[in-house]
Amino acid sequence: MGVAISIQDLSFTYAETTRPALRNVSGEVEEGTYVVMMGHEGAGKSTLCCSLNALVPRFFRGEYAGRVVVHDVEVAKARVAEMSRRVGLVLQDFEAQLFSTSVELEVAFGPENLCLPRDEIERRIDRYLRFVGLAEMRRREPASLSGGQKQRLAIASVLALEPLVLVMDEPTTDLDPIGREEVLSVADMLRQERRTLLVVDQDPDTAVDADQVWLMREGEIVAQGPPRQVLTDLALLESCGVQPPPTVALFQALGWPGQPLTVEEAIALIREHNLARPRPLQTPTLPANGRPVILELRDVDYVYPTRAVEALKGVNLQIREGEFLALVGQNGSGKTTLAKHLNGLLKPTRGEVLFRGRPLGEIRRTEMARFVGYVFQNPDHQIFSNTVREEVGFSLRMAGMDAKAVEERVAEALAVVGLSGYEEEVPFTLTKGERQRVAVASVLAAQPQVIILDEPTTGLDYRHQRSMMEMLRDLHRRGHTVIIITHSMWVAAEYAERVVVMRDGQILLDAPTRTAFAQEGILAEASLRPPPLLRLGNWLGTSGIPLDAMVEELRTG
Amino acid sequence: MNIFLYLDENTWFHRLDPRTKIIGVLLLFGIVMVFNHPLYMAAVALGLVLLGATAKALPNFWRMRYILALLVVFSTVLWPFFAKGPTPLWSWGRLEVSRESLMYAVAMGLRLASFVAAGLIFLSITTNEEFTQGLIRLGLPYPVAFAFSTALRLVPTFAGAGATIVQAQISRGLDVESGNIFQRAGKFIPLGVPLFIYAVRHTNMLAMALESKGFNPGAPRTWYLNPQMRRADYLALALLTVAFLAALFLRLQGYGQVLPRL
Amino acid sequence: MKAVITMWKNTRMIILVAVCAAIYAAALLAFKTAIPLIPGITEVRVANIFPMVFSLLFGPAAAWGSAIGNLIGDIFGGTLGLGSIFGFIGNFLLGYLPYAMWTTLKPIADGKRELALGNWRSWVLYVILALVSSAACGVVIAMWLEVLGLVPYPVLVSIITINDTVGSLIGGLLLLAVYGVVRRQLRLIWWEVMELEDIGKPAAGVLGAWLVVAGALVGWILGAYVLSGQALVIGIITTILILVGAFLM
Question: Least crowded by CB within 10 Å, which of A305, A350, B252, C104?
Answer without folding.
Answer: A305
